Automatic annotation (TrEMBL):
Alphabetical keyword list: Apoptosis, Cell membrane, Cell projection, Cytoplasm, Fatty acid metabolism, Hydrolase, Lipid metabolism, Membrane, Transit peptide
Location in or out of the cell: Cell projection, Ruffle membrane; Cytoplasm; Membrane
Organism: Pelotalea chapellei
Phylogenetic lineage: Bacteria, Pseudomonadati, Thermodesulfobacteriota, Desulfuromonadia, Geobacterales
Entries under InterPro entries matching the protein: HotDog_dom_sf (IPR029069), THEM4/THEM5_acyl-CoA_thioest (IPR052365), Thioestr_dom (IPR006683)
Protein name, per record: Acyl-coenzyme A thioesterase THEM4
Domain of life per record: Bacteria
Domain Thioesterase, residue spans: 74-145
Topology class, membrane: Peripheral membrane protein
Amino acid sequence: MDKTHANSTCSNRPDLRGEINWIPFDAAAFVGSSLRFVSGDPEGNRFRVSYYLDSTQHLKAKVWFGPETEGPPGHAHGGAMAAVVDEVLGLAAWAAGYSIVVGNLSVSFRNMLPLHKVVSVETKVVSAEGRKIMVHGRIYCEKTTYAVGECLCITIQPKNINIR
Ligand SMILES: CCCCCCCCCCCC(=O)SCCNC(=O)CCNC(=O)[C@H](O)C(C)(C)COP(=O)(O)OP(=O)(O)OC[C@H]1O[C@@H](n2cnc3c(N)ncnc32)[C@H](O)[C@@H]1OP(=O)(O)O
């Protein structure tokens, strides 16, 4: 199989390849290397994350929820899912050209997410009004939605951030 593209089926092994027409997105090259909490440890046992842009330039992510994200037995902690939604939706605003931090985040947990599972995250910047950028997204695998997020991002002056 082409190493850059995976089929869209879920997997219990950390196969983070993107889907057809997704292009790898180097988050660290774009916003610096500070995003260690969620996506900073590609060999770790918490999260493993790969970012992509789809054919419509929307940010996507493939995320493996490892054993150190456990909350309910055998399943991901809600805070772990919220952290993923926070980072991916915030990064989606950056990928769309806005220098932001997250001002408000709403997450609805729809299904328990089994540990060791690879899931997808989709995002969409739905509005930009003044300094307020609204991004919606969800964590899903095939027909199952695990969490839905609404993220209000507030633009900041890039000089106020130390990107490294
Ligand atoms: C380093 C590389 C990075 C790389 C980043 C990579 C991707 C991001 C991934 C991680 C995302 C995060 O976790 S970021 C970390 C978590 N977030 C934070 O720590 C943010 C903490 N909060 C703040 O710093 C501040 O409150 C700000 C910057 C959000 C806003 O402060 P401010 O600049 O003084 O602006 P302020 O006047 O208060 O608000 C401006 C407008 O936004 C509205 N507004 C502000 N906050 C809110 C809010 N929570 N809910 C509703 N509305 C709000 C105001 O009503 C106002 O509307 P109007 O009157 O104009 O109508």
